[in-house]
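User: Please go through the entry that follows and flag anything odd:
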Amino acid sequence: MIHVTPAAVTAWGSEAVFVNVLCTRLGVPVPAVPVLVFAGSAVAHGTLSFTHVLLAAVLAALIGDGVWFSAGRVYGRPLINRLARFSLSIDSSVQTTRSLFERFGVPIVSICKFVPGLALITPPLMGTTRIAARAFVTWDAIGAVAWAGFWLLGGALFSRQLAMLLRTVEQHGATVVDLLLALALLYVGYRYLRRWRLRKWLQDLTISAEQLDAMMHSAAPPVVLDARLATAVSQEPYRIPGALLLDPNAPRALGSGFAQREVVVYCVCPNDVTAKRVCGRLRGEGFEHAHTLRGGLDAWVARGYPVEPVPARPEPFGRSFARQ
C-alpha cells in the first residue's frame, strides 16, 4: 500500500492530487480519499485553491476511467476475469454492478466511486456493454465532480478536527501513514480470510465441463440452470442445451421437486461467483446435489461442447419446471 503524506499534499498542491487520483483510478493501491481530505483541509487554511484541486481530481479520474473503459471495449469480458484474479472483491463487485446497471442504466457510473468495490470495476465493465462512450464520459464526469467535491468539502469542514487528530497521532509516536497502513492491512487481511473460507467451503461444489458432459449423457441427466443476468444473455444469446434460465436472485423458484436431482448452475462471472452464490443458497435450501460449472459457459464453449440459441422469448422457468 502506497501513501501520500499531508505535507506532500500541501507542498505539491493540485499536482499531488492529480497524480494520486490518477494512480488510484488506474488501479494502483493508493488511497485517494485521505489525500482529498487533506487537500480540503489545506483549502480551508487558504494554502490551496479549491477550483484548481477539484479540476485536477476530476481530470485525473476521467483519464483513469477512460483508460479502463477503452480496455473493456477492446478486450471484453476476458479482461474482467483477469482483474478478478488480482483482487479480493472484484468478482462479487461485477455481479453487483451488472445488477445495478440492469435496474438504473448508465447513471450508476455517477455513484460507483462512492461504493467500495465498484469504483475500479465499473469503467471496464461498462466498456463491455453497448453504451456510447459519450454517455459514459458525461456520467463519469458528474460522478467525479460529486465524489471529489464531497471529500474536499468534508476536509475543509472538519479541518480543525483533522488537525487535532494529526497531533494526537504524533503524540503517540506514530504518523498518519502508520495509521492508514494499519487499517489497510487489517482490511486486506479480513477480505483475504473471508474469501479463503468461502473458496474452501465451495471447492467441493464445482464440477468440470467434462464431468457435466458425461452427466448429460447418463441415464439421469442433471437439471442445468443458466444464472446469467439478462444483459449477459443478450450479449451472448446461446446456452448449454436444455439449460433453464434462472433469476440468480431468486433460486427458490427451483422448487422442492428437484431436491433429489443433480443440479448444475453456471454463469459467466469471474470466479463463477454468481453460480457459487446460487449453489450455496440451494444447498442451504436442501438441494444436496447442487453443483457449479467450473469456468462457466466460457469453459463449456472452450472445450467444444455444443450450445443452442436462447429463444427470443424464453419460456418462464415456472412453466418449464411444471413439465419436469
